[in-house]
Specification:
This is IS66 family insertion sequence element accessory protein TnpB. The protein is an alpha+beta fold. Helix content is 12%, strand content 24%. It has one domain.
């Protein structure tokens, strides 16, 4: 998948190959701007979770993951 952002930062376009053809999707926010990850080596990379938050218009840099409780060894 390739994701392109507009200069205004409130619009994005995604190009995706579904196996039989290309899909082009466009999204823009009515208010606010998308929060993008930093660019490294001329491109940006994000996880599936970060992409989901980005498309939902949520600032993924402010989302905190709850600590995972690990079971204790007994005996």
């Amino acid at each position: 998948m390739f994701v392109f952002r507009a200069k205004r930062l409130d619009r994005l376009r995604c190009i995706y190959w579904d196996g039989s053809g290309m899909i082009l999707a466009t999204k823009w926010l009515e208010a606010g701007k998308f929060v993008w990850p930093p660019i490294r080596d001329g491109a940006m990379q994000m996880t599936r979770e970060e992409f989901s938050l980005l498309v939902a218009g949520i600032d993924w840099t402010r989302v905190k993951q709850n600590p995972v409780k690990r079971p204790l060894k007994v005996g």
